Amino acid sequence: MKRTSAIAAVTAAALALSLAACGSADSAAASSAPAEGTAASTEAAPAGDFDADQDITVISREDGSGTRGAFIELTGVEEKNADGKKVDNTTEAAAIQSSTNGVMTAVANDETAIGYISLGSLSNDVKAVTVGGVEASAETVKDGSYVLSRPFNIVTNGDATDPVAVDFIAYVLSKDGQAIATDNGYIGEDGADFTSAQPEGKIVVGGSSSVSPLMEKLIEAYKTVNPNAELELQTTDSTTGVSGALEGTYTIGMASRELKDSEVEGGAKATVLALDGIAVVVNPGNTTDDLTVDQIKGIYTGELTTWADVQ
């Protein structure tokens, strides 16, 4: 009997403690619950509350991209090895996107991401950081103070001979064509007046996805001054733009970088359409506003891995 009584007493005590604990938890929950009409405790963090200890998500372009080629050269991510061969040291952890829009979407959807795009394609979906304290703009590219800039080239196999190609190239380099480049955020020259010779025929223009948005506008404008011509635009990449011009797949190629020595030796001729800056972009929620060229290089080679490393 004594043993039975003892067990009953212990059980009763445990039950009392359990009920007390539940009561306390319910009271605490009730006191901490938000009043009707107020935000719940799971509400998103306020804007600007960025955790710099997060790992950096590196977004890069694909091999063959002129934007990638210019970017790795200008930032020093590409270096010569002991044999004098140029090596792209972009970290293997980089997520690859095959277009400017792909980079912007990836960065816009990930607060830890960083990417690079054509200045003329910059939108409010992403934030361009200053580089060494200099803003990426048409003015800073033109005066040389923004160091990440490159040419937009149109490429032909030697001198253009197709009448439509000759007329179209004259148009894009004219005052009207260069004004279109400037109006769209690129850096054009003054150019001369243009009168079309009204040639008939079809040409194919293809290559760099960075040059393509500007080229599309130039083609549309040219068709209004010469409705006799048909121009087809194909968007690929800079390397394909050059090889296509040399092989005859494209009448005119597009490249968002300087031509390689091997391409020039193969007969490729580049004509500068306009200058463009390469904007380094982060998510709008990222509090990072400025990076040096060395920091950008460190991020893209994998030496700097968290946002705290650059703040």
UniProtKB/TrEMBL annotation:
Pfam families: PBP_like_2 (PF12849). Gene3D superfamilies: Periplasmic binding protein-like II (3.40.190.10). It is found in: Cell membrane. Residues 1-23 form the signal peptide. Its main location: membrane. Keywords: Lipoprotein, Palmitate, Phosphate transport, Signal, Transport. InterPro entries: PBP_domain, Phosphate_ABC_transporter. Residues 52-175, 195-309 form the PBP domain. One of its GO terms (biological process) is phosphate ion transport. It is a lipid-anchor. GO terms for cellular component: plasma membrane. The complex is composed of two ATP-binding proteins (PstB), two transmembrane proteins (PstC and PstA) and a solute-binding protein (PstS). Belongs to the PstS family. Part of the ABC transporter complex PstSACB involved in phosphate import. This is Phosphate transport system substrate-binding protein. It comes from Gemmiger formicilis.
